[in-house]
Amino acid sequence: MRTRPIVPSVAALSLGLAAVFVPPAAAAPPAPPAPLEDHVSGEAVMQHLEQFQAIADANGGNRAIETPGYEASAAYVEQVLTDAGYTPERQYFTFEDLNVDELSLTAAGVAVTEDVYPAEFAPDTPAGGVTGPLVQPVDALKHGCTAEDWAGVQATGGVALISRGTCAFGLKVQLAAEAGASAVIIYNNTVGAINPTLGAPSDDWVPAVGIPQAAGQAIVAALAGGPADATYVLQTSIVSHTTFNILAETSTGRADNVVMLGAHLDGVPEGPGINDNGSGSAAILETAVQLAEHGGPLDNQVRFAWWGAEEVGLVGSTHYVDDLVANDPTTLDQIATYLNFDMVGSPNYVIGVYDADESTYPAPVEVPPGSPETEDVFTDYFDSIGQAWVDSEFSGRSDYQAFIANGVPASGLFTGADDIKTDAEVALFGGTAGIWQDPNYHSVNDDIENIDPVALDINAKAIAHATASLAADTSAINGVVSPVDPELTGLTATARCTGKVATLSVVATNGEDRPLDVLFSTPFGTKTFNHVNPDKNVHQSFSARSGSLPAGSVTVRAWDDAGSQETYTVDYAALTC
Fold first, then answer.
1. What is the DSSP letter of 40?
2. Hey, is 383 helix, strand or coil?
3. What are the φ/ψ torsions at residue 77 (nearest 5 degrees)?
4. Which of 39, 258, 285, 296 has the fewest beta carbons under 10 Å from its own?
5. Beta strand 565-572 with 488-498: parallel, antiparallel or unpaired?
6. Distance between CA atoms of 194 and 190, rounded to whole angstroms?
7. H/E/C letters for each residue in 389-455?
8. DSSP string of 353-378, one letter each residue
9. CA-CA distance, 307 to 247, in Å (whole number)?
């Protein structure tokens, strides 16, 4: 909302005096307020990150769920919000998670100790593990995607070694199991680790695990020397966890058309989690602070969320949405769009925008209407300032997943995790090709020293811009047009003499076709008028209780039942009676 300056009225002739009071020249109207992105900086966001780093340092080196580091991180966020005028709330939830009690893999004498990921929905091994001869499908690429690929292979009791590619992980495991394999090892067909999923629970699965390309190649090379065995051990248990989200929202703006921002607050146990995802948490925290100070009355309410338990399966955001679906679907329907910020300061960064319009990547999820228009808020901003950007796959791998699964439009920003940076991306953003966009992803080195301040500043300002833009207007996303700001006409503030006492007379007229509430605020008192009808005027005189008053201004605020507001300032001249 903007504050409208009103040209000051000329003071009336003082009663009983022959001399005419001539007021000083009117001051020039104040400059329009700076956009919100001018108030949000990467430097300020970095100050929040320094607090997260100090918290991790003081609490075992991490900020994972159910740790003192997470509790202290939450307390810091809550204190900053409270100081800014918000009323943050915790939303507690309990969930069950799979805890890995024992995990090891040795194949053909190669001990695989890093980036070993049990396949989702695959069963545990028996106690002591599965040991058997290594076997491979007969197709040239070792993908094992058809029954023919296993024809003639003596796989019974063996451990199948299969390359990623061509078909789904579940089909690979199914065919290997049908051929008689007791366990399956899937190695990546490109640089890096894989975290396979079999899609759904099934009694047909055998224990299966994903390993990086380099480990797979080492095993294949060892097999060239002759037959060899493999031993795979996986023992897990179900553990119950209780943690919480933090929610806060603005006190102004229509509550039936909410703009929501979210970032997960928890990190992994391996490190302090400063980029993943202290960066997103700190960026929306600073946006909230500056919105409270500089945003003025809003057309649309803005709600902020710091999610818990993202690192163990998007649990906090999923709980929030599922709870609304079950208990308060109207509130879910009132979310105009959701903006997600997960890693916005990667050291080998790209400026990525979730590709909601699928212009680069076909989305593996159904994209709700309004998501491409949400993406446009970011890309149009970057284009307007000449900032290069690229599409990031709209994959559902972060906290927007539950929202889009329930029809809420979404987009957001992402500077990269374990994707390999390309030469084309280096040409746009600098950095190093051929390595991860965040080489410290999910490691002890994800600390304050490895945040890129340029990426952080670019994204912090983009977050602020999108927040302010959508707080004013979401019509391109959901067709909801913000109410017209309430207009007052005939607004004057006049200094007069009543006998020897100076008074200030304030007048306004409702220029709308709907009732308005009107508040006069002066140095000499306030007055509220409820439900002023269209074309009706309101008037109040305020006594200075002395024979003179200095030059000053009156603040006049008007609002309607829908929550739309407008604030005016009216200057008046000094007067001596």
1. -
2. helix
3. -60, -45
4. 296
5. unpaired
6. 9
7. CEEECCCCCCCCHHHHHCCCCEEEEECCCCCECCHHHHHHHCCCCCCECCCCCCCCCCCHHHCCHHH
8. EE-TT-SSS--SSPPPTTHHHHHHHH
9. 9
The DSSP letter of residue 271 is S
What residue type is 332 in one-letter code?
L
Check residue 3 and give its pLDDT. 45
Instruction: Indicate the length of the chain as a whole number.
Output: 577
Active site residue 310: yes
Structure tokens at 469: 């833009």
Q: Is 179 strand, coil or helix?
A: coil
H-state helical runs in 167-249: 169-178, 213-223
Contact yes or no for 180/137 (Cβ under 8 A): no
List 310, 311, 373, 512, catalytic entry: 310
Lookup result for tokens 């959901």: 478
Taking a C-beta distance cutoff of 8 angstroms, is the pair 553, 540 a contact? no
> pLDDT digits over 423-442, tens only?
999 999 999 999 999 999 98
CA distance 107 to 110: 5
Residue identified by tokens 């019974």 is: 156
Q: What are phi and psi of 226, to 5 degrees?
A: 130, 175
Averaged pLDDT, 404-421: 96
β partners of residue 436 = 420
Closest listed residue to residue 412, CA positions, set 294, 305, 308, 329: 305
For residues 499 and 340, the model is more confident at 340
Q: For residue 150, what is the DSSP state?
A: G
- For residue 12, pLDDT over 90 is answered with no
Question: Strand, coil or helix: what is 26?
Answer: coil
Q: Which pLDDT does position 195 carry in this prediction?
A: 87
Apex 276 CA angle, 273 and 282, nearest 5: 90
DSSP codes, 42-70:
HHHHHHHHHHHHHHHHHTTT---TTSHHH
Alpha helices in 473-563 (DSSP H): 475-478
pLDDT band at 384 (very low <50, low <70, confident <90, very high): very high
| Locus of tokens 């607050």 | 265
Q: Please, where are the H alpha helices in 430-575? A: 453-472, 475-478
- pLDDT tier, 563 (very low <50, low <70, confident <90, very high otherwise): low
Q: How confident is the model at residue 189 (pLDDT cuts 50, 70, 90)?
A: very high
Q: What is the pLDDT of residues 484-523, one digit of tens each?
A: 778 899 999 999 998 899 999 999 999 998 899 999 999 9
As given in the structure block, the two tokens for residue 349 are 């960064």
User: Sign of the C-alpha dihedral, residues 118, 124, 127, 131?
Assistant: negative
CA 116 to chain centre: 29
Say whether pLDDT at 92 is over 50: yes
Q: Quick one: CA torsion of 58, 63, 65, 69, rounded to 10 degrees?
A: 20
- CB 222 within 8 Å of CB 161: no
Angstrom distance (rounded) from CA 148 to CA 164: 17
Q: Mind listing the pLDDT tens digit for each residue in 284-319? A: 999 999 999 999 889 899 999 999 999 999 999 999
Question: Where is 262: in which H helix or E strand?
Answer: strand 254-264
